[in-house]
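Quick illustration, no need to memorize.
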Amino acid sequence: PKFSGVVADFISSIIDLPQEKGYFYSLAQNFERELIKGEIILKPSSMSYYPEIKYNFQDTEIELHRTSSTVSELAPLFLYLKYIIEPGNILIIEEPEAHLHPKNQRILAKYLVRLIRKGVYVLITTHSDYLLEQLSNFIMLGKIKSQERIEKYKYDDQDYLKADEIGTYVFAYDKKAKGHKINKVEITEEEGISQEEFLKIN
């Protein structure tokens, strides 16, 4: 069957995944275990040239199309993290919070921060004020001592952001220009990412 360019590129990259584990393999495994309570695996297929992507949950292998939307939507991210992404790369994710419970958005934010700390440039689009709020929390965590982050808040030493390490922009429709303008959102160490745009009702 014919696929769109994005899907075709993804399938192509999965076929060509390297055999060896990538730089972020262990981080990706921790991410999987915490968020989906299992693991995304690749298995050779006897019926096709393409490998099968499965969800291993409590020693039961489930075909990806039979899994929840959370698992199937995040499977590409986990595989890219395990085998392809390296420090210095740009990782672009469209609406990573889609199909995620707020508790899981909190986990997602933590691992995005860990990737940033390890030198990955992360670019996301989002409609989630909750996800932005979580990222704001990591900016505020950057103001306290690492020992307090670990002992009081149960985070790791590297679980923080600096205000100048993150940029947030809103695409707003401009009636006069008959198009969208990109406006920068204020970020401070005291309050994190401004929530003003989410409070507006049009």
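The chain is about 40% helix and 20% strand.
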